[in-house]
Each structure stands twice: as C-alpha cells, then as structure tokens.
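Could you help me review a protein record that somebody else here produced? This is what I was given.
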Amino acid sequence: MNDPRLVLFALTALFSIWAVMARSLLTSAIMLALVSVTVSLIFFDYGAPWAGVFELSVCAGLITVLFIGAVSLIRSEEEKHPESRARFYALPLAAAIFAIAGWFYLPPFFAEMAGWARPGTGGGTIGLALWDMRRQDLLGQVLMLAAGVFVIKSVFPRRTEK
C-alpha cells in the first residue's frame, strides 16, 4: 500500500473517532462530513468515480447539511448534561485495540481482495464524473437539499429567547 492511501485511511479513522468523541453534535456532524470526503477520495483513488461522486454529493453534501441544520436548531439533553457521556471514555482504548488488530489482520485481507478487483471502465476525474455524466442527478440532489432546508425551517421555527 502506498503512502497517499495510508494517509487517506488514517484521516478517515481519525475523523471517525473525532466524530464519536466530540462533545458537540455540531462538531460530530462536521467530522462526519470529513469522513465522507475522505471516503470519496478513497473511492476515486481505487478507480470508482461513480461511488466517489455519490459519497461526496449525497453523504458529505446533502445529508450533512440537513444534519447540521437540524442539530443547530435542536439542543440535545446530553449537551446540557455532559456527565451522561461518561460511557464513551473507554472509546479511545477500544479504538487503539482495533487499530492494533487492524495493523496485523487488514494487510492480508486487502491483499486477498486485490486479487478480486476488476478494472473499471472509463474512470476519470471528479469534474468529468460530477458535471458531465451526473448533471441530472446533481440537479435532483440540489432540489432535495432545498426541500429539506424548507422542511426543517417550517418544522422547527426559530425560537426567540426570553
């Protein structure tokens, strides 16, 4: 495995752990978006531009924007009482155990899976996949995003603090 792929996998793991360990739901949503961005870069690196575009536009774009909008309008009870998050303090230890186990078990697994790989037809750049081949999907996703924003704004009207 070459260095850029290792960096992408490490960043994905780092952002994933950060998303779970963050004290704020808004920070967790942003870290989740960064996980989706790094996963889409991994897809592009492995020659799967369709999966990369879908991950980048739907997961990192649409879902994250809706999630951040909903989280910013609602304040959870756990944010008011941070002592209820004590059960998550063992998560770094669990992540370290999984990282050590992955260090030993994942390279042979990926080596076996590399034998199953079939080259994709007509890979390309992200711009080609997003703007030329998937233009209609992009329009649909923008319309869904706008509809989601209007639904959130109508369901959760802005509260005035007294």
Notes: The chain has a mean pLDDT of 74. The CA atoms of residues 13 and 98 lie 11 Å apart. The first helix runs from residue 3 to 21. The helical segments are 3-21, 25-45, 49-73, 77-80, 91-114, 126-133, 135-155.
